[in-house]
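Lecture notes, unit on protein representations.

Consider one protein chain, 334 amino acids long.
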Amino acid sequence: MADETPSPSFAAPPQWFGYVRRIPLEPQRTTAPVTAQRDLFVLAHLGIPQVDATAWRLEIAGLVERPMTLGLDDIRRLPAQRVESFHQCAGAPRRPDLAVRRIANVVWTGVDLAELLQSCGIRRAARYLWAYGLDHGEYDGVDAPWYVKDMPLARLDAGGVLLAYAVNGEPLAPEHGFPLRLVIPGYYGTNTVKWLWRIELAERRAGGPFTTVLYNDPDPASGGTRPVWEVPPEALIVAPAPGPIAMRPVEIRGWAWAAAGIERVDLSLDGGADWLPARVEPRRQWSWQRFAFAWRPQRRGSFTLAARARDMRGAVQPMERARNAVHTVPVRIE
């Protein structure tokens, strides 16, 4: 039986308590194909633990034949993989109607989790993976002994799930989860648990506040709720920036992404009344995809640019009131 309130085998590290938020890049500054670690958004609901890597250990427990405890050096000695993936904040846990557009694209380095778990022997009853972070405390009126998220174990079959200790070739900074974080390409960042210290396999979903009270959106199809796991299609206009631009040819460009990959991006010059197809570059692993559209303005005046993405499964961005609502940019041709 899974245990939702275990204690680490080492002394819990000191922690900067309280909500931490830092958003370095506005949409029009999200220009680099790979986002530098210093430019990644930082959102820590419960604070930032200050981990001593020499004392830290990762525990693998629950429905496995051979439980395991590993130090950071043990993990670094295992075969390393690099995975390029978009990295997106889901936004406010209780606001599925609000698009925040905090997005990056990075290259993670770490250990393939599927291979590691196979070496532990996965029991047949296991259906979910629980990931524990060292951060703990109170957020939005709920108390969490640990930050715990879960993932269907079947997600491992698609590949790319890492125990990551580096990003873009640099060791993880404390605010980004040093010494280890779980990376699930295609899932929102809230699931990529930082300061990871325990992985547990279980028959059911985890019962902590970050899986039951928070990050569960309404599901019209079932009439219930669904967990905020996979990222639906979304597009972000990087250029032009809002405001005046000259009366000359303009390249409208930006990034699009989805767990399933992007099939198509359409651009609108009138806020969504009419749409035209943009050029979309192919995806690298789970990376975001560049799109571009050549616009030759025929008149002066005000325009509302909009970008709408469709993923490989046929899902299309909604115009409003969603985590992935269509991005619009007001411009004025002078």
